Amino acid sequence: MECKVSWMGPGGMSFVAQTGSGHIVAMDGAPEGGGNNLAPRPMEMVLVGTGGCTAYDVVMILQKSRADIKDCSVTLKAERASEDPKVFTKVHFHFTVTGRNLNPTAVERAVNLSHDKYCSASIMLAKTAEITHTVEIVEG
After folding, report:
1. HEC states along the chain?
2. I need a labelling partner for 80 at 20 to 30 A (CA). Which of 59, 67, 103, 140 fits?
3. This protein's superkingdom (predicted)?
4. Can you give the residue range of the structural domain that contains 12?
């Protein structure tokens, strides 16, 4: 896996990343850090990537078990250390899984498998952060 991150130059703290799969992502800093607030912060991207990683796992696991899943979202709330390096110290994942006749045990198992075995991003975050989660199942 490879990517390239390039500074957009003087006048700000904006960066453009090109991923190995050929996609472009912009990032920017907060105004108090010299940025112009034009794009997500790099650490927000870490959190977004982690949410995408674990949601992907949960959907894949439930689909493989033939669950009638219609939607899956995860809201992440994180706390960071107050001193540098400002690593994540706590991350809470709230999963909302929608489907017909979903088995709560199967949904919980999918979330646990993601966090314990498959989601590289959340497993890395667990090295510095307390990871917790809740699951909400919506019939639909």
Report:
1. CCEEEEECCCCCCCEEEEECCCCEEEECCCHHHCCCCCCCCHHHHHHHHHHHHHHHHHHHHHHHCCCEEEEEEEEEEEEECCCCCCCEEEEEEEEEEEEECCCHHHHHHHHHHHHHHHCHHHHHHCCCCEEEEEEEEEEC
2. 59
3. Bacteria
4. 3-33
